[in-house]
Each structure stands twice: as C-alpha cells, then as structure tokens.
Amino acid sequence: HPSVAGVLVCLLEYPRSKRKKGSTMERCGQKYMTAVVKVFGPLTRNYYIRAVLHAALAVPAGFLLSTILGTVCLGIASGIYLLAAVCGEEWRPIEQQPRERPHVGATIKQRPSNPPPRPPTDTRKKQPEEVGG
C-alpha cells in the first residue's frame, strides 16, 4: 500500500545526517528517530541501500495515476542517494556532546601588552584650529 511506503520513507528521511564540516542543526524530536534508524545499522546508514530502496518503492507506485508524482520524487531521491554514495557519503547520526562550562579564570581577559598601532610621526599632521564665530 502506498501509505505504508510513505510512512517508511518519512521514518527513514526525518533524521538529518551529521555534516563532515561545520555544524548541523538537529530537527525537533530527531533524537528519538535517530535511535530507530541506528538500530537497523548499515541498512539505513549506507546510501547505496537507500538508493535501491527508493527505486524499489518507486516501481509499484508508478502503476497508479494518482501516485505518479510520488514515483517521480522517489526516483529523483534514488538518483541523489546513488550520487552521494558514489562520492563516498553515508548517514551519520548527530550526537550531542556535553557542553563544558568555561572556567571563571579563562573568561577573564588579560590587558593588552602592546600599545595600539599608530601611524608614523611624519604622516601625522596637526589639525588646524577652527576659528569660532
């Protein structure tokens, strides 16, 4: 049934993967879904398997006129996953690391030891005084 396939795709796609560089914002409630996706291990982590799964789900949906748009979307997603898998990407969970509180001594800044930069003395000019009216 197409609605069962839709629920399966939604469960698989909801948790975001951790980026290689930079930070990734976690979706609301993603930690619960991440635990479900992690249970299936390489079946959900590998993008080759995701590409085949999306393509397999697209085939039966293509026989009904009412699900043609979903078929196109699943086909495009399958192609994107295949390209990502060829490039060596895989799904990685976003795991929260406990934040360390900064120590009080580390937050106090030392006063500067060097004076601020100034232009050379020959380039500095005296400003002419303005005559008041």
Supply the key terms.
133 residues; mainly alpha; 6 helices; 48% helix
Describe the 3D structure.
The chain has 133 residues and is mostly helical. The chain has a domain at 47-89. 48% of the residues lie in helices and 0% in strands. The protein has helices spanning 2-13, 30-39, 42-45, 47-61, 68-86, 104-107. α4 (47-61) runs antiparallel to α5 (68-86). The protein is elongated, with a radius of gyration of 29 Å.
Describe the protein's topology.
Layout: H1 2-13, H2 30-39, H3 42-45, H4 47-61, H5 68-86, H6 104-107
Helix pairs in contact: 4-5
Protein name: Cytochrome b-245 light chain
GO cellular component, one term: plasma membrane
Family: Belongs to the p22phox family.
Low-confidence stretches: none
Q: How many strand elements? A: 0
Secondary-structure element pattern, one letter each: HHHHHH
Per the principal axes of the C-alpha atoms, what is the gross shape? elongated
Distance between the termini: 90 Å
Amount of helix: 40-55%
Number of helices: 6
β-sheet strand percentage = under 5%
